[in-house]
C-alpha cells in the first residue's frame, strides 16, 4: 500500500520502536504502513468517532494485522497511558485542536520519546504553545502534495528547554529547502491579494484584520530574505 507524500514523510521518518500511537487515525492507512514497513511491534490507532474506527478495524482485518494494530475509540491522548507509546502521531487536524489534545494529557505527551505533528492550520500558534510548554522542536518540514503544502513538526518534551521568544514565525523552524521558499512565496502572494481585496472593498471594521494581514505579509517577506541569505536548500 503506497501512502501520499504527507503521510509517507511521517511514516518514513520513524526509527524502529516498540509502540507507535496514531491519534485521529481515521482510515488506518498510516498504522498499516508502519507495521508493514517494520517501524514498530505494535501500533495503537485511535479516533474520537466510532465510524472511522470501524472502517479502520475492517481495513486492518483485511490486511490480517489485528494482532499488531489495536483500535481505540476516545478523545485524543486520553485513551493512552503514560509511557505507553514511544512515538505519538497527530496528523491532519487543526493546530489548535492538536494543542488542546496535548495540553489535556500533558503527562502522556511528555512521556513519548517523539511526537510528530501535522497541523492543517495555525502551526505558528501550535509551535508557540510547544515552546512555552518545554517541548523542543527537533525538525520541521514542508511537504508538497499536488499543489498543496503541508507542515510536519517533530518535537519532544525536554524539561530543560525554555522559551524566551515572543514573536514566532513558523517558517524559521522548518528546513531551509526549495519547498519552504515556494511555500513562503505562496503565502506572500496570498496575503498581497487579501490586502488588495480588502482595500478595494473598504470593509467596515476591517482595520484590525488589515493590520494582521500586513504584519503576516511583512513577516513572510522578512523570513524569505533571511532564509535566502542563510541558504541550505
Ligand atoms: C482529517 S482526519 C485525519 C486522518 C489522518 N490522521 C490523516 O492525517 O490523514 C481527522 C481525524 O481525527 C479525528 N479526531 C478529531 N478530533 C479528535 C480527537 N480529539 N481525538 C481523536 N481523534 C480525533 C476525526 O474523527 C478524524 O477521523
Molecular structure report:
This protein has about 230 residues and is of the alpha/beta class. It has helices spanning about 5-10, 30-35, 50-60, 95-105, 105-110, 125-130, 180-200, 205-230; strands spanning about 15-25, 40-45, 70-75, 85-95, 115-120, 135-145, 150-155. Strands 3-2-1-4-5-7-6 form a 7-stranded mixed β-sheet, with helices on both faces. Strand 2 (about 40-45), helix 3 and strand 3 (about 70-75) form a beta-alpha-beta unit. Helix 7 runs antiparallel to helix 8. The model has no long low-confidence stretch (mean pLDDT about 95). The structure holds S-adenosylmethionine. S-adenosylmethionine binds near residues 25, 26, 47, 49 and 75. This is tRNA (Adenine22-N1)-methyltransferase. Keywords: Methyltransferase, Transferase. GO terms for molecular function: tRNA (adenine(22)-N1)-methyltransferase activity.
Features:
44% helix, binds S-adenosylmethionine, tRNA (Adenine22-N1)-methyltransferase, 233 residues, single chain, 23% strand, 7-stranded mixed sheet, alpha/beta, 8 helices
Q: Number of helical runs?
A: 8
* Number of distinct beta strands: 7
Small molecules held by this entry:
S-adenosylmethionine
Poorly predicted spans: none
- CATH class group of the largest domain: Alpha Beta
Spell out the helices and strands N to C.
Answer: HEHEHEEHHEHEEHH
Biggest pleated sheet: 7 strands, mixed
- Content of β-strand: 15-25%
Radius of gyration: 19 Å
**Overall number of domains:** 2
Q: Looking at CATH, which topology of the largest domain would you report?
A: Rossmann fold
Pairing-aware structural class of the strands and helices? alpha/beta
Going across the biggest sheet, name each strand in turn.
3-2-1-4-5-7-6
CATH H-level homologous superfamily name of the largest domain: Vaccinia Virus protein VP39
Q: CA-to-CA gap between the ends?
A: 30 Å
* CATH architectural arrangement of the largest domain: 3-Layer(aba) Sandwich
Fraction in helix: 40-55%
| pLDDT averaged residue by residue | 95
Amino acid at each position: 500500500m503506497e501512502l501520499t507524500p504527507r503521510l509517507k514523510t511521517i511514516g518514513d521518518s520513524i526509527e524502529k520502536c516498540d509502540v507507535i500511537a496514531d491519534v485521529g487515525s481515521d482510515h488506518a492507512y498510516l498504522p498499516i504502513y508502519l507495521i508493514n514497513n517494520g517501524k514498530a511491534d505494535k501500533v495503537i490507532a485511535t479516533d474520537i468517532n466510532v465510524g472511522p474506527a470501524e472502517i479502520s478495524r475492517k481495513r486492518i482485518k483485511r490486511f490480517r494485522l489485528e494482532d499488531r494494530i489495536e483500535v481505540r475509540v476516545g478523545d485524543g491522548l486520553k485513551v493512552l497511558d503514560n509511557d505507553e507509546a514511544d512515538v505519538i502521531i497527530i496528523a491532519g487536524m487543526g493546530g489548535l485542536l492538536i494543542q488542546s489534545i496535548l495540553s489535556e494529557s500533558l503527562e502522556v505527551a511528555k512521556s513519548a520519546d517523539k511526537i510528530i505533528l501535522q497541523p492543517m492550520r495555525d502551526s505558528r500558534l501550535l509551535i508557540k504553545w510547544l515552546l512555552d510548554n518545554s517541548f523542543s522542536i527537533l525538525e520541521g518540514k514542508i511537504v508538497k502534495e499536488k499543489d498543496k503544502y503541508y507542515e510536519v513538526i517533530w518535537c519532544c518534551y525536554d524539561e530543560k528547554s525554555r522559551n524566551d521568544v515572543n514573536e514566532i514565525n513558523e517558517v524559521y523552524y522548518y528546513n531551509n529547502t526549495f519547498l519552504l521558499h515556494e511555500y513562503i512565496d505562496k503565502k506572500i502572494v496570498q496575503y498581497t491579494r487579501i490586502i488588495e481585496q480588502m482595500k478595494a472593498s473598504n470593509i467596515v471594521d476591517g482595520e484590525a484584520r488589515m493590520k494582521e494581514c500586513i504584519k503576516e505579509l511583512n513577516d513572510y517577506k522578512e523570513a524569505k530574505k533571511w532564509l535566502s541569505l542563510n541558504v541550505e536548500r
